[in-house]
Amino acid sequence: MTRWWSRLRPDNFTLALLCTVLLASFLPMHGAAAMVLDDVTDVAIAALFFLHGARLPRESIVAGLLHWRLHLTILACTFVMFPLLGLMFKPLDGWLLTPELYIGVLFLCALPSTVQSSIAFTSIARGNVPAAVCSASLSSILGVFLTPLLLALLAGTEGGMHNPGQAIVSIMLQLLVPFVAGHLLRPWIARWVEKQRALLRYTDQGTILLVVYSAFGEAVSEGLWSKTPLLSLLSVAVVAAVLLGIAMPLIRFIARRLGFNREDEITILFCGSKKSLATGVPIAKVLFAGGSLGAIVLPIMIYHQIQLIVCAMIAQRYARDPVTPR
């Protein structure tokens, strides 16, 4: 019983997310204070991606790029398979899911892969870590361009999204430019960044919490909880679980059919099935500024916790059985 509870118990960051949502629900900011918070959030997001760029070793990029079949497979799972799966839930739009939550599901499906947790789970499961570093980082960079375009294709004008071209420019200025600047400065700041890795992890999480508080505070002020039925909130959790439950076996099947070895299969499974909360929330802030941002980011927040629990269990299973036969 204790073992199962330790697996299912939310991690500290998820608990912090829940507390942040509660705080935003009861004490949202208004007026000038909300505008100041919005500006502070923009600066924090830029700093976050600057540090991401500074952490990415160039050697990993060069080594990983040589394994192009693996990267194309992961990118296809992330940006082709997932959006198609998202369309599968269209019949729930306006029935079990509110329109805003369904847009959130489509947004979740259009997001890039995570970086830190994809690498961590690949390492635990004894997969191809250098390839995971390269693939997850490449996914995040391409997400700046592909996520707005995919969402425009999937949702059209229904999502209340800004013009995709303008959105891409805005996302590049806020996310990609700081990322590239951080990477270019890596020769001078890499040592300091590595020494501060533990502290910077909390900086990452703090930035996400700040954005979530701002997004949910605005959404609550616009009537998020009063306009969203309880059945819809429960349904979006089920949708997130079903989405992951379909995606992971399908990705593993694809990896095996394409003849990848065990280490590459692990990398494809974890990098291809993960969706980035750290990248998703800032992108949503740009795409849906002034819209129902709180409801739209809710599916990725739920999916985030489910993927951590499930991937932790699968990674431990791979680690215990490193010579699983095909």
From TrEMBL:
InterPro entries: Na+/solute_symporter_sf, Put_Na-Bile_cotransptr. The chain crosses the membrane at residues 43-58, 70-89, 101-121, 133-155, 167-185, 206-225, 231-255, 276-303. Pfam families: SBF_like (PF13593). Keywords: Membrane, Transmembrane, Transmembrane helix. One of its GO terms (cellular component) is plasma membrane. This is Bile acid:sodium symporter. It comes from Stenotrophomonas rhizophila.
